[in-house]
Every structure is written in structure tokens, then in C-alpha cells.
Amino acid sequence: GELKISIDVGRSELELGRGEPFRRVLRDGIGRSIDADAMGFEVLVPRIAMTDAEEGGSTDVVVQFRLRPTAATTAAATGAREADRANERVNAALTRVMDDG
Q1: Taking the CB of residue 42, how many other CB atoms lie within 10 A of it?
Q2: 2-7: strand order across its sheet
Q3: What pLDDT was estimated at residue 18?
Q4: Alpha-carbon gap, residue 63 to 32, rounded angstroms
């Protein structure tokens, strides 16, 4: 998936520690917002792109994330039907989060 946000924090602050603290915050926030653990997924954030926003001091952020099934989910999945159900739950959670802002 992909998430686009603007943050009222300067890019240089977000890149402190090679951006790893910010990456963890994004990963954990996405995971909690869709309840990824309860659905049996781990959130991975392979790419973050940051650009200075036109307004002073803000940063535009594009986060690419993936959901990886946990070992328990993989063991429980016995076919395409279960994968389809998991996909529907994730999509419903993402839609709910986006609708709630």
C-alpha cells in the first residue's frame, strides 16, 4: 500500500538517525490503525520518500508499506479462500482508517 501525508516537521528532523525512528513510528502507526496483529499481519515499510513542502517547515511524506502474514497466519491459511478473506479484512480496515482521517 501507499500512504501520503504532510507533517509540520522539517525534513532534517525526520531524517535523524537515518530516518529509522520515523520509520518505526510509521510502521507502528499503520499497524495499530488497521489492527494488523489481530489480523495476523506484520507491517513492513520498505520505502519512505520525503520532500520539503511549499509551506515553510512542512514535509510531504510518501510511505510505501507491505503486510506480511505472520507464521501463525501462514500456517492457518489453507488456500485462496482464506487469503481472499484476509485481503477483504485488510481493505476494510484501511478504508475505515482513511474515512476516519
Answers
A1: 15
A2: 2-7, 59-69, 41-52
A3: 83
A4: 16
CA angle 17, 22, 27 (to 5 degrees): 135
Cell matching residue 21: 525512528
Can you give the pTM of this predicted structure?
0.74
With vertex at residue 58, the alpha carbon angle to CA 56 and CA 59, rounded to the nearest 5 degrees, is 135
Structure confidence by residue, pLDDT tens digits, 41-91: 899 999 999 999 876 789 999 999 998 888 766 555 556 667 677 778 888
Name 42's bridge partners: 68
Query: Taking the C-alpha atoms of 75, 77, 79 and 84 in order, what is their torsion angle to the nearest 10 degrees?
Result: -150
For residue 6 the three cell numbers come to: 504532510
